[in-house]
UniProtKB/TrEMBL annotation:
Single Gene Ontology BP annotation: transmembrane transport
Record's protein name: ABC transporter permease
Keyword annotations: Cell membrane, Membrane, Transmembrane, Transmembrane helix, Transport
Cellular component, GO annotation: plasma membrane
Cellular localization per UniProt: Cell membrane
Entry's transmembrane regions: 12-33, 78-99, 105-121, 128-150, 156-179, 214-237, 262-284
Membrane disposition: Multi-pass membrane protein
Species of origin: Chelativorans petroleitrophicus
Domain ABC transmembrane type-1 residues, every copy: 74-280
Amino acid sequence: MAELFRRFGGGLGTLFLALVAVWLAGMVLAPNLTMIDYALRPNLPPAEIGGQRDVYSLDNILYLANESVHRAIFFKTVWASALVTFITLVVCYPIAFWLAQRATPGQAAVVILALTIPFWINEVLRTLAWYILLAFRGPLNALLLVIGIIDEPVRWYGDIGVLAGMTYAYILFMLFPIYNAIESLDRSQLEAARDLGASVWRTHWRIVIPHSKAGIATGCVFTFMLAAGSYVAPALLGSPGSRWFTEIIYNWFFEGGDWNRGAAYALVLLVLCLAVVLVTLKLARVNLTDVAK
């Protein structure tokens, strides 16, 4: 904060802080407090709101604990989001290392541009592109049939389609934090490790990964939270047997008309995401200041 006032002066610095405070109050604090209020109150007719039955309780949250189907979908969303995070990390880490330490500036610019251009369009359109790609008579099945890997078209919709679509949708949120972290690594450390006879695996395990742990933790947090809260990919690429927890929340709000129970489900998902953030930062021994960088 002192640096802000030093760079921009008292008047402009105060204006910036005021704008941030208004944004946090209006876009973060107020919606979440409203969600908590809805989650802890019963779904009542307008005439009974404020009456004797309008009291705070945990009934809406406990309903999730007692509803076996919704509870199963919740835990499935948790592990599936973790799987999306892991797959995205496995895909992005070697790309980030190559871009940061091996690629020439021209090669890095071309690859980053190629990865970024598809994200200039809406997420819905990108997901629809995957819907076409994975269609029963789509390009993927046509290619696999020509190569001879499969004998008849495969229905890719469901868990496989959702995992593929999410991995692609959130790849940049994993790639860029890791890339920024590895880019600051001094190449002389890698050369010293190679001169001392360290294998590639040992070099990454002892040098690259510890140096880039803040970027890895940031990418994992972003990817998990986006995957757990995603609605477009499960709705378009999923199947009845691969429902996502966000679809249950959507149904409560817009089909069931029970905003209180929908808010309770959303609150449980929010608490889960916050817990994942804290646990991830704790395991990686990274603080919020490192993530903010």
